[in-house]
Design goal:
343 residues; Jelly Rolls; four-stranded antiparallel beta sheet; 10 helices
Length: 343
Amino acid sequence: MSRDIPVLDLTEWRAADAARRSETGAALDAALRATGLFLLRGHGVPPGLTDRMRTRGRAFFALPDEVKRRYAVGRPYDNGWRGLGGLDVGAVNGQAGAPDLHEAYHVGPSLPQPGGWEVPPCTGDPSFDATYYPRNRWPAEQPGLRDTALAYTEHMTRVAHEVLGVLAAVLGLPGDFFTSRSRRATWTQNVNWYPSLRTVGGVSEGQMRVGPHTDFGTLSLLDRQQGIGGLEVWNEEAGWFRPPFEPGTLVVNLGDLMNLWTDGRWRSLRHRVLAPSDAAPDEELVSLVYFFEADPDAEIVPLAAPVGGGAGMRPVIAGESILEKVRGSLTLDLVSSAREGQG
């Protein structure tokens, strides 16, 4: 069925024999060819940590805008706060419309150091490192957010690497095929706040919490909240539909880099988050989305057939590809207001 979404249990996968892994791999391969996502159990992320991450993020968004502006992003690829209306994801594909109805707080790679400060996984090239490893902006008004985010993203990075190992096995590749090109991987952890209809006051024609798009990186890990104005995904047979919701699982969806890496064999998931609804005017949601990419200087070369899909895609440099798409999705007002907020 075109709406069938498999579940991968990492605990079971680790213990499975070759026959069971082959069966699981076939189900994953079919879903990734058709749609581009699956659900993930057995990931080992403590539920209490996830709850704290969501609670700390929600508390940050409750701060006055003049406070949040102190932590605003200052350029397209940056960490910190992005205000309501600061993103139009459809613009990347030439389908610019109404800005997306959500706020976001972005966290990126960092290595905790004694004394409570961090350094990114730098290369030693100041210009390169400043471009791809922007500093985190931790809000003094929410001191618990920093430690919670660092603990949560450590788990997300672990899970991403393990999932990439599974995907390599599904393709019959060496287990470190993807992870060997992700030792200094860029990633962004979003806390996305989807305010209620009552809060935003109204919705423009065609406006959504997040418009139709594909993610830019290798894979994304989503901890979602179920809602009327929630996630929908797309494939050619079913069109738009709601993927299954199972508490405690993560949604794993593939991005543009993985679509290119497999030369079209696997899809980059097309998805959207619906607008707040008149049927639930007080519904607000908080999603935790971890976007994993690759080493920014890694050349992503499409896999040859029969492993690759034979689409004839051209190689890209991972970081350059990400930056180009990020620049295309941000509104000019965002960059302007963020710079004012930094002043």
